[in-house]
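Key result, reporting period 2: structure in, sequence out.
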C-alpha cells in the first residue's frame, strides 16, 4: 500500500463522520424548505427551487460514500491504515473525493 495515500483509520472515520453530518444538515434545511412550501400552499419561489436541487447533490454524495465504503471494505485486513486514493478512485463527485482525501481542509473531531 502506498504510504502517500495511506490514512489512519481514525482519520478515515472522522472524515466520513464529517460528510454524514453535512448531509444531515442539508436534509434538515431541505425539510424546512419543503415544510414552508407546503404550509404556504403556493408554488415554490426560484430560491426555493434552487434549494430543492440539493436533493440531487445529496443523492450523489450518498452514492459516492457508498462506493467509498464498499472499496474500504475490500481493503479490510490487519493494518490500521487504508489506501485512500484506491478507496476514492470510483467516487465520481470531485469535491467529495477531495474532502475524503483531505485535500481542501483538515477534518474535525
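The corresponding designed sequence is given below.
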Amino acid at each position: 500500500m502506498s504510504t502517500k495515500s495511506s490514512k489512519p483509520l481514525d482519520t478515515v472515520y472522522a472524515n466520513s463522520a464529517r460528510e454524514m453530518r453535512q448531509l444531515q444538515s442539508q436534509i434538515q434545511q431541505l425539510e424546512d424548505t419543503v415544510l414552508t412550501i407546503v404550509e404556504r400552499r403556493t408554488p415554490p419561489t426560484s430560491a426555493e427551487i434552487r434549494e430543492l436541487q440539493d436533493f440531487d447533490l445529496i443523492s450523489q454524495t450518498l452514492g459516492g460514500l457508498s462506493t467509498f465504503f464498499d472499496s474500504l471494505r475490500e481493503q479490510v485486513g490487519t493494518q490500521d491504515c487504508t489506501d485512500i486514493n484506491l478507496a476514492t478512485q470510483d467516487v465520481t463527485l470531485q469535491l467529495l473525493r477531495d474532502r475524503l482525501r483531505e485535500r481542501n481542509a483538515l477534518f474535525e473531531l
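The longest helix spans residues 9-40. Strands lie at 6-8, 81-83. This case is discussed further under Risks and Mitigation.
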